Amino acid sequence: MNKIGLIIRREYMTRIRNKTFLLSTFLLPVMIVILIAGTVFLAIKGRTNHRIAVSDQNGYFRDYLKSDSAIFFDFTPGIDSLNYAEKNCSAVLIIPVLREGQKTIYRLKYKKQLGLANIDDLEKRISSAITDHLIYTKTNITRNRLDSIRAASDIAELQTFSDEGKKSEASSQGLSYGIGYACGFLIYLLTFIYGAAVMRGVMEEKTSRVAEVIVSSVKPFPLMLGKIIGIGAVGLTQFLLWIGLIVTLVMVAQAFIPHDLLVEVNNIQKANAMGNASMAQSSEAARQIFDVKQSLQHANWFLIIGCFIFYFIGGYLFYASLFAAVGSVVNEDPQEAQSLLLPISMPIIFSFIIMSIAAQDPGGSLAVWASMIPFSSPIVMMARIPYGVPTTVPYWQLLLSMALLVGGFLFTVWMAGKIYRTGILLYGKKPTWKTMWKWAFKA
Amino acid sequence: MLEVSHLKKYFTTQKAVDDISFTVEKGTIFGLLGPNGAGKTTLIRMITGIFYPDEGTILLNGKQFNADKDSSRIGYMPEERGLYKKMKIGEQAIYLARLKGLSAPEALKQVREWFVRFEMQSWWNKKIEDLSKGMAQKLQFVTTVLHRPELIILDEPFSGLDPVNANLIKDEIFRLAANGSSIIFSTHRMEQVEEICNQIILLNKGKKILDGTVANVKQEYKENLFRISANPIPAEIPAALFEVLSKNDQTLTIRIKEGHTPNEVLLYFIDRQSNISVFTELLPSLNEIFIKLVEGTSLSRQFQPTQS
Predict the structure, then answer these.
(1) For a disulfide at A92, which of A53, A132, A143, A173, Cβ 3.0-4.6 Å?
(2) Same structural domain for residues B67 and B146?
(3) Using an 8 Å Cβ cutoff, are A376 and A354 in contact?
(4) CA of A213 vs chain B CAs: smallest distance (Å)
(5) Is-contact B284 B249, C-beta < 8 A?
(6) Which phi and psi (to 5°) does residue A280 adopt?
(7) By the 8 A CB rule, do B161 and B77 touch?
């Protein structure tokens, strides 16, 4: 059909040539990077050094509580809950005599909140100090001996593998979670951005009354479909540009890694391939780069990107047609759109919430069910796929989910087409749900 | 060229178009008249293929009208003008022409030609939002006729145009009709109808209440009114022959009674040695006919159930 091609081309070209498209394509990744970097920076910078005065009646904590960059323990004699603030301490720890066989309460008084993480940390330090003290007093082991045993015990490392029958793939839970969450989030974002763009496009045609002119040349259905496909193509273009941008950035970043470090990374790689996991000689930086490289290589990028494109298109078609139907029934007043948008945005937002659960527990029944239902499957399934197909997501689940999504969007497009056909030429009162239902299923 | 028979379109609250038939010949300018809400827009939307009729047939050149195939034969300028505000004018005109089935080079050629004819060449890279209302109107007209449609439907084409541009459009309408296009012209402005249209129909409440050429309609609705200027005016008026409606110095407006002819009136004056300087028939204006026919029916259409 020649005319639908013309419509798609117009929708695509007018948007691609728009400055906001270029701006959003290149600024959004930059903004995300700045956001992440900023949070990390603030988290590091914002970590305060706590000085905690210790009033210990047992006398041995001084030997076991070690000060470090996070917490400084002040054992100045005579410090107590009355004068700790004058000594520049933010809190005071009062440890009464601890007796074996009973629980004794020790207290922390503070002027400034330590924060949950620090309290946790503090508790652990105290209990390991008690353990250490008991080990020394109850056994003959020396402190140096225990320390060296501790250091020597760091010889095992867990690596997880997903079982795929013949071969086992090394997997990284953290990375799968990260990729899954990012994919789900991106689909959520793109569905909203481009769904809203479809709605605005339809409203523009309706309020500027160009719809009647166009509809006298083209049937409403191809007009709606052309708009949805054209705008979807813009979204896909943007996604592909982002991939290109990321690949380029990674390559550029690699060029900044010093050469000897890269050699070291390669050595680890070789050693690892021979089954020798010893990394004792390599530096910390090299090991980290190796880890990232290793796990990035383990992710099945073709599958992830392929599925992403499928679920993006499917989810987009599913929701964009609903957005188009809403756009066709509202008039000049954007307020009207609000109430009609609610039933469309609620499932998207719910899917997002389910997605953040599914990214952590991809095999849970909530995740499985939500990745089948077309309302939520595009967002939720993308959080599960990085964990592995067919291990975490069996083939039947993937295929069923895809089939249901295709069926789902065919249905919404068909239904939206019916509402759109009538709504686009109707001015005046906003139709009720009941009349829209009639347009969709009775006409 | 266009043959509409027994067309019906019922909405839930109204019989928008209720059994309307008419024929538009090739090359005629056809006036579609009617008060607000008479069903004109619905009728036009059925002819342009936007709505399907509930009943009745539309024949185009003797063949059943098919909205998909025949959209290129029709040019429609709706009353509520609409163009893409953010799109460049040249591109927009080409886009609309191509939607009507013109090839890209053909569309470009036609747009160039029309832009030159209407002196709009400098607008090419402007956007609609930069144009005045009258300029947008001209552009809308151009986009309507670009693809050389056989049937052109214009809904209030002159609203918002200054007299110079209105004349420009009017001349184009005549030229297009002379070249064989049929034009359906929908308006409330009766003086334009008298000036432009060959044939008219009048709709009211979804029904056709008048059909014919402008001259025929006037003849049909004439009320035997004449103006006569004579000196001296006879003192005695024969009430059986005619009645005087108004008198102004030497000029009378009279209505000749049923069964009598103008010649009898003239003879009466001549017999009384009256010198007649003017004797003319007063035909009603379309405006008067329109008001007479539509008046008395309630001004705005009432909502009523279609099933009784």
Answers:
(1) A53
(2) yes
(3) yes
(4) 7
(5) no
(6) -55, -35
(7) no
Q: At what angle do helices B133-145 and B89-99 cross, to 10 degrees?
A: 30
Please report which confidence band the pLDDT of residue A164 belongs to, taking 50, 70 and 90 as the band edges.
Answer: low
CA dist list (Å): A390 to A179, A364, A383, B2, B31: 17, 15, 14, 64, 70
Instruction: Please judge whether B98 and A215 are an interchain contact, meaning their C-beta atoms are less than 8 angstroms apart.
Output: no
Q: Specify if B267 maps to a domain.
A: yes
Q: Which helix (H) or strand (E) holds B77?
A: strand B74-77
Judgement on whether residues B145 and B10 belong to the same structural domain of the protein: yes
A15, B61, B111, B292 from B70: Cα distances, Å: 31, 11, 21, 38
Q: Which amino acid, one-letter code, is at A138? A: K
Q: How confident is the model at residue A378 (pLDDT cuts 50, 70, 90)?
A: very high
**CA dist., res. B144 & res. B83, Å (int):** 11
The answer as to whether A228 is a domain residue is: yes
Residue B291, min C-alpha distance to chain A (Å): 28
Amino acid in the structure at residue A48: T
Q: Are the C-beta atoms of residues A196 and A330 closer than 8 Å to each other?
A: no
Residue A143, chain B, CB below 8 Å: the answer is no
Structure tokens at A441: 């299923």
Cis, peptide link before residue A386, omega less than 30° from 0? no
d(CA A253, CA A265): 15
Size of interface A-B (CB pairs under 8 A): 60
**Spatial distance between the Cα atoms of A253 and B111, rounded to a whole number of angstroms:** 52
Distance of CA B46 to the CA centre of its chain: 17
Residue B84 lies in a domain: yes
Instruction: Please check whether residues B133 and B251 belong to one and the same domain.
Output: no
Per-residue tokens: B134:
């009258």
Q: Give me A191's structure tokens.
A: 């569905």
* pLDDT digit string, tens, across residues A316-342: 999 999 999 999 988 877 777 888 888
Tracing tokens 């379109």 back to the chain, one arrives at: B9
Main-chain dihedrals φ then ψ at residue A143, nearest 5 degrees:
-65, -45
Cβ–Cβ below 8 Å for A210 and B49: no
Q: In Å, how far are A31, A43, A69, A89, A115 from A46, measured between CA atoms? A: 21, 5, 13, 18, 12
* B249 CA: distance to closest CA in chain A (Å): 55
Is residue A343 within 8 A of residue A141, CB to CB? The reply is no
* Predicted TM-score (pTM) of this structure: 0.79
What are the structure tokens assigned to B34, written together? Answer: 């009617």
Is B78 in contact with A209 (Cβ distance < 8 A)?
yes
Cβ burial of A198 (10 Å; 0-12, 13-18, 19+) is: buried
What is the predicted pLDDT for the residue at A167?
56
Among candidates A70, A75, A41, which has minimal Cα distance to A55? Answer: A75
Question: A220 and A107 in one domain?
Answer: no
Q: Is residue A96 in some structural domain?
A: yes
A88 and A181 together in one domain: no
Q: Exposed, middle or buried, B94 (CB in 10 Å: 0-12/13-18/19+)?
A: buried
Contact A25, A31 (CB under 8 A): no
Check pLDDT > 90 for residue A294: no
Give bridge partners of residue B2 from the DSSP assignment: B24, B60
Q: Supply the range of the domain harboring residue B233.
A: 223-282
If one counts the domains in chain A, the total is: 2
Q: CB of B67 within 8 Å of any CB in chain A?
A: yes
* Residues B135, B140, B145, B150, Cα dihedral to 10°: -140
Q: Is B231 in a helix, a strand, or coil?
A: strand
Contact residues, A window 191-250, toward B, CB-based 8 Å cutoff: 204-205, 208-219
Q: Which domain holds residue A377?
A: 2-29+171-441
User: What is the DSSP code string of A192-245?
Assistant: HHHHHHHHHHHHHHHHTTHHHHHHTTS-HHHHHHHHHHHHHHHHHHHHHHHHHH
Enter the ipTM: 0.81
Asked whether the CA dihedral A415, A418, A422, A425 is positive or negative, the reply is positive
Residue holding tokens 């867990």?
A: A158
